Amino acid sequence: MKTITYILVLFIFQVSFAQDAFHNFGNLQIHDQGQMGFHIDLENDGTFNQNLGLAGFYSFDNSLTISGTEIPRFFDIEVAVDDHLFLEINTEVTNGVDYLIGDVITPRLNPDISLDYLNNAVYALEDDLRNVDGYASVSSNQSFVFPIGQDDKFRPLITPAQPSVVTFSAAYFNEDPNFPSTFSNSFDTNTSEGIINQVNTEEFWDFDGKDLTYVTLTWDQESQIDNLVSDLMNLRVVGWSKTENKWLDLGNSAITGDTNNGTISSVEFIPEDYDIITFGALIGSDGLNVYNAITPNGDQLNDVFIIEGVELFKNNLQIFNRWGRIVYDAENYDNSFNGVANKNVVGTQGEKLPVGTYFYVLQLTEENKSYSGWIYLTY
To answer: Residue 302: left if φ>0, alpha if ψ -120 to 50, beta else—which one?
Structure first.
């Protein structure tokens, strides 16, 4: 996008100017290669959705606001507002946004109002000081990195490419989920399914949509991931289930980085089934000596999955693949798993599992304790 060097204003008799707002009652259009700069608020109560040029919002002294009864749709947008651009109505973009100065702020109490990216629109120049502080949405079949943040923290959420055009929306909250500021209920981080040992209390995301997808979350040093896990293989995406009213495991299908900076991807789920999502940790395996590597190649070294001491307890063991499907289970496990499935999930029951990372949950039934962790299988 080009920097504005002139302003093209279309004078139509239904458009009125007031000291504090550009008020459209009629039918406006920014034509191809046309440019219109707003140095005062835009109040749109007319047609303003056939634009092909650039709309710029500029103020170095005050905030600006887009409001009205009719949704404006722009081709390109530039934002250079020191005290932020506030949206009181959905605002759509079909090509691109340049975040030059300041945030775009949407009302968090009304998630239906968002900055909407349509037709595979993109953006540029986003960072901690320039993003959407509130809700952004996307309607696309392409992978999308939501340019969202709060409190001068850019914390994107990423969705993958989709088989068809779908709509998702997201917002980042730099808040403890136990005490959310804009939700009618709290999300008790001590209430979770048994496999989850701990839930992050530093931040969360509101992620909405009706279509099955996985999602990738990002963290930085302020996320304090090292307080959750020392081994990233035990990190999970977790979501507060609307039906079960507790945190559920949404998996760990891919992970990058270290405890200071990184990303984690969930397994597939339907976003609207969960109020919010964040990071969680599997129950630790302290108290038992677990050998995480299995190499069942007949050399009598690590040929089976060994948990030293497990024979002292009545137990149940389940082993899951990365997609959360059970591939092996045993009552009173006796250190005999050698990479062969006893559940008909991958290939055929009784066949060797593929090389890769798996997760286990061990329940000590009489002790009322559960342990979990990861296993790496190779041959």
So the answer is: left
In the predicted model, is pLDDT for residue 1 greater than 70? no
Closest C-alpha among 222, 217, 251, 247 to residue 234: 251
Do residues 314 and 365 touch, judged by C-beta distance below 8 A? yes
Spatial separation of the C-alpha atoms in residues 331 and 153, rounded to whole Å = 47
Give the CATH architecture of domain 289-377: Sandwich (2.60)
**Spatial distance between the Cα atoms of 357 and 375, rounded to a whole number of angstroms:** 6
**Pick from 173, 181, 226, 179: which is nearest to 204 by CA?**
173
In this structure, the strands spanning 315-320 and 326-331 are antiparallel
Q: How far apart are CA 38 and CA 55, in angstroms?
A: 7
Candidates 125, 136, 130; CA nearest to 171 is 136
Closest CA to 278 of 224, 352, 325, 209: 224
Q: Among 274, 286, 314, which residue's Cα sits nearest to residue 193?
A: 274
Q: What is the pLDDT of residues 296-350, one digit of tens each?
A: 998 888 999 999 888 878 999 999 998 888 999 999 999 999 999 998 765 556 7
